[in-house]
Amino acid sequence: MTTELMLLGWTLVLALGQILLTALLRDQETGMAYSMGPRDGAAPPPRPVTARLQRAQANLFETLPLFAAAVLVAHVAGREGALTLWGCWLYLGARIAYLPLYAAGIPVLRSLVWFASLAGLVLLFAAILAP
């Protein structure tokens, strides 16, 4: 297994962790009866941290398919190298840093870290598309 595929695997672990963390906090807010029921009634609004984690999760899921596809295309096409390695590390590292920054409500640094994750994607795309 290549390092890039391993980093993709760890990114998927991060995604699962975000799902579980957000669900845990939301369950604490709504109660287990609501969470395990049909959820037909309106739930109370999420607390600020839970809402931020929900948005961070949605944000990850916007770029995760692109990241996964790029890693897999690079692997299948034999285009793995320095660009893909740096791109994967940058994407995963930025996504890990992004989560607590977003949860804490830190605005500017959070956005800079988000751009760093996009830079990781750009490195992957460059590796795939370079002649």
TrEMBL record:
<feature type="transmembrane region" description="Helical">
    <location>
        <begin position="83"/>
        <end position="105"/>
    </location>
</feature>
<dbReference type="InterPro" id="IPR023352">
    <property type="entry name" value="MAPEG-like_dom_sf"/>
</dbReference>
<keyword id="KW-1133">Transmembrane helix</keyword>
<dbReference type="InterPro" id="IPR001129">
    <property type="entry name" value="Membr-assoc_MAPEG"/>
</dbReference>
<dbReference type="Pfam" id="PF01124">
    <property type="entry name" value="MAPEG"/>
</dbReference>
<keyword id="KW-0812">Transmembrane</keyword>
<keyword id="KW-0472">Membrane</keyword>
<feature type="transmembrane region" description="Helical">
    <location>
        <begin position="112"/>
        <end position="130"/>
    </location>
</feature>
<protein>
    <submittedName>
        <fullName>MAPEG family protein</fullName>
    </submittedName>
</protein>
<feature type="transmembrane region" description="Helical">
    <location>
        <begin position="6"/>
        <end position="25"/>
    </location>
</feature>
